[in-house]
Amino acid sequence: MSMPMMRPKRKNPILRTRVMNLPPSARGRVALGLTAGAAEGRLMLQVCERCASLQYPPREACAGCLSPELRWREQSGEGDLLAVTILRHSNDLYFRERLPWRIGMVKLDAGPTLIVHLHGEVAEAPCRVRVGARLDRSGQAVLIGFPEQETPHMADDPVLRDMTSDPKFRKVLITDGKSPVGQAVARAMALGAVYRSLAEVAVAVTGIAGPTGGSTEKPVGTVWFAWCIQGVCTSEMRQFEGDRAAIRCATVGHALNGLLDRLPE
Ligand SMILES: [Zn+2]
Fold first, then answer.
1. How confident is the model at residue 178, as a pLDDT?
2. 47 CA distance to ligand 1 middle (Å)
3. What is the pTM of this model?
4. Cα(70) to centroid of ligand 1, in Å?
5. If 218 and its partner were Cys, which of 28, 141, 178, 258 is the partner (CB 3.0–4.6 Å)?
6. What pLDDT is stored for residue 184 in this prediction?
């Protein structure tokens, strides 16, 4: 039976439609070290092996002694917010859609001075801030100034939502449940659930329940499982027979049995 089509919700004619676009992604080759750190949620800066001076922005040779031996090292990011400015114009489309935009200049306790995006709860300068590196929607590192103390719902700040890829209330599409990527996704989902919820146990599944979506090397019924118990994550792949309902039923059964097997006495 066909479902009657529903009239789409009326758009508010006064509100302007936001243009879909991405933050600027151009980075130099050395700056990718910052991005590699941000992918793990860490602020990494280069330290000279010869004179131990801390470098920013990322560069090929030490600004003090010209040594090319620079190593990426994790930084605490603590420092003083020296000045704040509010952008009311931008030539970049991404920021033009999000004006006004607050940015600040931070002097790290470790030395360098950085320009950072500011979390909405950061007070006016001068004050203490903690600089963190995050991946933006282009997949590149961005530096964000956070308030010194954590506050509840800090992750829901609009600046942080615009500049990072937090999955909260967003849909995540997993296109391949059998590949090593699919396995990694299942493990990451289980770990993420534990990390986000303070739960002790998490179970994640991803796969192809059918009736479509299968292929010869990934037939319908391929399901990846991950169990995360007290910080230890294990995963496996199973193949189930039957239609969509049967595969989903078998998946739930196997996920729960696997959990029972793994729970400590
Ligand atoms: Zn040096």
1. 62
2. 8
3. 0.64
4. 8
5. 178
6. 76
